[in-house]
Amino acid sequence: MAFSNGDVRKEIAEIISGIGSDERPVSSPKEAFKIVAIYPAMMILTVILLWFSFYAMMVMTGDNTGQKLGFYFEAAQLIMGYEGWISIGVTTVVAIFFILISYSTALIYLSIPEDIRSRSKIIASIKSTVKKTFLILWGIATLLSLVGMFSDWMILLAGTIPVVLFMSIFIINGYLGIQSARYGLGPLMSTANKLISR
After folding, report:
1. For residue 44, is it left (φ>0), alpha (ψ between -120 and 50) or beta?
2. Residue predicted with more confidence, 139 or 176
3. Residue 108: predicted pLDDT
C-alpha cells in the first residue's frame, strides 16, 4: 500500500491528536494482555499438542492390549523426560518474555481511539503484516516440529517452537522499528509513552 508524505503526516497528526484528547478512554491492561498473549498461547498449545500426539503415536506403535494404567503413566514419564518437559518449559518462559516485551506496544496501540484506529491506513497495513508474519512463523514452527516427530530429528520437535517464538520477538520488533522509521512515528511513540507513564 503506497502512502504519500502528506497522507502519512495527516494520519500521524490525527493519531497524536486522538491520543492527547481528554475524551480518549484509558488503555485497558486486560485488553493489552489479550492482544499480546494470543500468539504465545498458540505456540504453547501447539507444543503441548505435538508432544501429546508424539506420546500417543509411541504408545500405539506396539500391542499394549491389557496393559495396566500404570504402564501409560510410565510411558508418559519416559517420553516427556526425553526433552518434552524441557521443550514445553522453555516455550512457556519465552512466551512470558514475549508478552513482557510486547505489552507496552499493545498499550500504545490501545491508547489510539478506536475510530481513528479503524480508519488509519498505516495502522491497518502494519496490523495486517504483523498478523501474516505470526501465522507464517507459527506454520513454519509447526511444520518443522511435525518433521521432527516423524523422523529421527527429535531436536526439531523439541527445539523448533521455542526457537521460532524467541526469534519472533526480534522479527516483530525489528519490523515495527523499520515501520516507525519509515513513517516517522517517533513523535507518536513519544506522545503515547508520556501519556501511558502518567
Report:
1. alpha
2. 139
3. 84
